[in-house]
Specification:
binds pyridoxal-5'-phosphate, 3-stranded antiparallel beta sheet, globular, about 40% helix, about 375 residues, 7-stranded mixed beta sheet, alpha/beta
C-alpha cells in the first residue's frame, strides 16, 4: 500500500475559497483584530449565541486566557478530566493553579458530575469539562454544582464547534468556552482558537490580557486616543490571514457537518451488527445533546482485541488511533493524582478506545 492510498484519520478541507480569502486579507493589513477577525468573531457569536467572542492563537491559549481573566491563580484548584488532551491541564499550570483530576462517565465520556462533586474543596475555583468527540458533557449537573459552590465553569470545547446541549451551543454554556481551529478539528485555519465569555467585566479583562495587557483593542475601536499597559497579559491575538481562512471555513460549516454526519451514519449502519456480536460499543446518541461528529470511536471489550484490529486495519491502509494516555498515568501528570484516588472509567476507556478515520473528504466506499 503506497502512502497516497492510506486512509488517514483526519483531513482538513481547503479549496480555492480559503486561498482567495487569504489574498483578500493581504489587500489590507494582516495583524490581529483586522476586518476578518472582526467578521469571524461576529459570525461565531451569532452561531454560538455567545455574548463575547475573542479569536486567539490556539485553544490552549484560550484556556490560559480564560483562567487568567477569571482570576484563577496560585493556591487555587481546578477540576478537570484526566481523559483529555494535555492542554486542559497545562492551562491550569500556566496560571499557577493545580489541576485536580476527576473521572468521566461511561456514556458521553465527559466529566462525571458525581466524581467532580467528590473533588471539590474550599480551594476549588473552576471546573473544566471537556466535550469529548464533540459530544457535550452532562452540563446541567456540572453547572448546578458550580453555581452551588461558587466556582467557575470553563468549557474545553476544542472539539465541539456546532454541538448542542438541550438546544444551546456547547462552548457558550459556562462562564467561558474555548475552541480550537487546529488542522485536526472540524473547522480549521491550521492553528487557531476562540474564547467565549459570558460576563462583560471578565470579557473586558480578557480583551486586555489578550493584547499584552494593553487596551489596544479599545484604541482600535476608537474608545481611547492612546493605548497603554494596564494589566498583566500575553500575546494571544490571531493574524487576519488565519481569520480569513476561518471566514471561508465557516461558509461551508453546514457542508462540513453534513459530510461528517454522513460518514458517521455509514459507520453505524455498517458496523452495528458486527459491534453487537463482538461486544464492541459505538458512540451513544443521547436525546438531550447533539454532537458534531468530530470523532467516531469504537470501545472494545479488551485492549488486545483493539490492538489486533488496529494492526489489521493498518495493513489494509486504514490509519486509526487511540487516545488519550490518561494524564494521571503520564510521566508528568502522575504528580497531580490524589493519593487515595482511582479513575476507573478513564483507565478502562483509554485502553479500549479506537478512533476511525473521519473527515469531510472521506469517500463512502
Ligand atoms: C485540540 C485540543 C486542544 C488544543 O487545541 P490547540 O488549538 O491546538 O491549542 C485542547 N483541548 C482539547 C480537548 C483538544 O482536543
Amino acid at each position: 500500500m503506497t502512502q497516497e492510498r492510506m486512509i488517514t484519520l483526519s483531513e482538513p478541507w481547503y479549496d480555492d475559497n480559503e486561498t482567495s480569502r487569504v489574498r483578500e486579507a493581504f489587500s489590507g493589513r494582516i495583524g490581529g483584530d483586522g476586518p476578518f477577525c472582526k467578521r469571524v468573531e461576529t459570525r461565531l457569536a451569532r452561531l454560538l449565541g455567545a455574548r463575547h467572542v475573542l479569536l486567539t492563537t490556539s485553544c490552549t491559549h484560550a484556556l490560559e486566557l480564560s483562567l487568567m481573566a477569571l482570576g484563577v491563580g496560585p493556591g487555587d484548584e481546578v477540576v478537570c478530566p484526566s481523559f483529555t488532551f494535555v492542554s486542559t491541564a497545562n492551562a491550569v499550570l500556566r496560571v499557577g493553579a493545580r489541576p485536580v483530576f476527576a473521572d468521566i462517565e461511561d456514556v458521553a465520556l465527559g466529566l462525571d458530575p458525581a466524581d467532580v462533586a467528590r473533588r471539590l474543596t474550599e480551594r476549588t475555583r473552576a471546573i473544566i469539562p471537556m466535550h469529548y468527540a464533540g459530544q457535550p458533557c452532562a452540563m446541567d449537573e456540572i453547572l448546578e454544582l458550580a453555581r452551588k459552590r461558587g466556582v467557575f465553569v470553563v468549557e474545553d470545547a476544542a472539539q465541539a464547534l456546532g454541538a448542542t446541549y438541550r438546544g444551546q451551543s456547547a462552548g457558550a454554556l459556562g462562564d467561558a468556552g474555548c475552541f480550537s481551529f487546529h488542522e485536526t478539528k472540524n473547522v480549521t485555519c491550521g492553528e487557531g482558537g476562540a474564547l467565549t465569555v459570558a460576563d462583560d467585566v471578565v470579557a473586558a479583562r480578557a480583551e486586555i490580557m489578550r493584547e499584552k495587557g494593553t487596551n489596544r483593542k479599545a484604541f482600535l475601536r476608537g474608545d481611547v486616543d492612546k493605548y497603554t499597559w494596564i494589566s498583566e497579559g500575553s500575546s494571544y491575538v490571531l493574524s487576519d490571514i488565519l481569520a480569513a481562512v476561518l471566514d471561508a471555513q465557516l461558509d461551508k460549516l453546514d457542508e462540513i457537518h453534513r459530510r461528517r454526519s454522513r460518514a458517521s451514519s455509514l459507520y453505524r449502519a455498517g458496523l452495528d451488527d458486527w459491534a453487537k456480536r463482538g461486544g464492541v460499543r459505538l458512540p451513544s446518541a443521547l436525546d438531550d445533546r447533539r454532537g458534531n461528529d468530530h470523532v467516531f470511536f469504537l470501545l472494545f471489550p479488551d485492549e488486545r482485541v483493539r490492538d489486533r484490529l488496529q494492526a489489521r486495519l493498518r495493513s489494509q491502509g486504514i490509519l486509526t488511533a487511540f487516545h488519550y494516555v490518561p494524564l494521571h498515568t503520564s510521566a508528568f501528570g502522575r504528580a497531580f493524582l490524589l493519593h487515595d484516588q482511582a479513575l476507573p472509567v478513564t483507565e478502562r476507556v483509554a485502553s479500549a478506545l479506537l478512533r476511525l478515520p473521519l473527515h469531510p473528504l472521506l469517500e463512502d466506499d
